[in-house]
Description:
This protein is of the alpha/beta class. It has four helices and eleven strands, in the order ββββαββαββββαβα. Strands 2, 3, 4, 9 and 10 form a five-stranded mixed beta sheet that branches. Strands 7-5-1-11 form a four-stranded parallel beta sheet, with helices on both faces. A hairpin with a 2-residue loop joins β9 and β10. The chain is elongated and about 65 Å long. The N terminus is likely disordered.
Amino acid sequence: GVPVQTKPACSAFPNNKKRLPGRIAVRPSDTPVNVFVLGDLVLDHFIPIVPKPPPFQAVGNEHVVDGLPRRTITGGAANSARQIAALCRRGRTCLWGPSGYSPWGTFLQLLQRTQNNDGVDNPIAYLGSHNEAHATNTITRVVGMSEGRRISREYRIDNVQNVPVTDSEVKDVLSYLRAEHEHPGIHAILINDLNMKALSEELVLQVG
């Protein structure tokens, strides 16, 4: 495996700062820390809705609402990478995981947009395995809103492919790990497993 140091080098932001939905509130560390995150990648897609005033035409017993602008952010292992990149602003944060087709753009494009929204200027190095033959795992949430505030999560829709990682992808991530270990070095490896088949037993054993 790749030898790493696991001593923590970042601190979380105090709880007294207001946290905004979809943003990361942190106090960055000036200590350079290089972290490699690998695991399941997910797109979190949000559909905000508000009650629709009449008149409207409903079919049967269906509920009619007005939709607000939708939002898609990167989740799964990317959540961990985003928080590490925000906390350790002088280090290098790498992210690996399998991604695929998305109607909202590539995973890299969405990761960059999400980081821009986070207000973090330490870009994550995305080293994932991309395959347009299958869709990126996506979790869609229909969220009820009132006067601009979230009031309830109405529905969650899971579109998860559970596509097992291939031997070629295992070789790729191990190659990335060796290269990062040689330069600029890796201080910690973080494995984020959502049980979506991105992490095989062979991969975890070889990383360890």
